[in-house]
Design brief:
This protein is mainly alpha-helical. It contains eight helices and no strands.
């Protein structure tokens, strides 16, 4: 099959629609993953068993089940108990919830890496727990884990095509739909593959730069 630039030109409007959906899912999913991951990490360090145990069980369950199964559950099963969600909303929640269990481990490692003396100093100053976390522990922990969090953003980008299964047509979903309609897969799939490289590779370089600066 020969390359046809007319096919590329015809596909581009749908491609840009897919880019928008991809970026929305990536940005919102990342924010959800970072926020929930921090909540999970702090909750797992709670001295209260009734807080620590359920959170650990939930995060382990999510981490050890496929993202695709979770997306199907959110899109097809959850609406039976509550309001239905749009495909994009479901995709954002699915990606964010799934990756929050991994970012929780990243945060946990960062928190464990804070020197014990910092905890002792906060105790000696009689800082309340909230102040200890927000002013002493978390600023140091998060600084250490930014590069690792960035790696999960790239991983989320590469998993974003899964949301097309539930109807949120991101870049690859649009390419597959266009190919099914026109029987031309070469051009749209190639364009999408290049787009993923152009997004992921510069992002990985940025993460390396951040890592070098933050470890100084």
């Amino acid at each position: 099959m020969n390359w046809d630039w007319n096919v590329v030109e015809d596909f581009m409007p749908r491609f840009w629609d897919g880019v928008l959906v991809t970026l929305q899912a990536l940005v919102l999913g990342s924010l959800l993953a970072f926020t929930l991951g921090l909540v999970w990490a702090v909750a797992q360090r709670s001295s209260k068993v009734w807080v620590r145990t359920p959170v650990t069980a939930v995060t382990e369950f999510i981490r050890n089940t496929p993202l695709l199964v979770q997306l199907f559950f959110l899109f097809y099963v959850v609406p039976e108990w509550g309001p239905a969600m749009s495909p994009l909303t479901t995709g954002v929640i699915g990606l964010g919830l799934h990756y929050s269990t991994y970012t929780a481990e990243v945060y946990r490692a960062g928190i464990d890496g804070v020197p014990k003396g910092q905890w002792e100093a906060a105790t000696a100053l009689s800082l309340p727990p909230v102040r200890t976390w927000t002013a002493v522990i978390l600023p140091q922990a998060i600084r250490r884990v930014v590069p690792a969090l960035g790696n999960y953003v790239i991983a989320m980008l590469k998993d974003s095509p899964l949301i097309a299964i539930i109807g949120a047509f991101e870049m690859l979903g649009e390419a597959r739909a266009y190919g099914s309609e026109t029987f031309r897969f070469l051009e749209p799939i190639t364009v999408v593959g290049i787009a993923f490289i152009l997004i992921a590779y510069p992002a990985s370089l940025l993460i390396r730069v951040l890592e070098r600066r933050l470890v100084r």
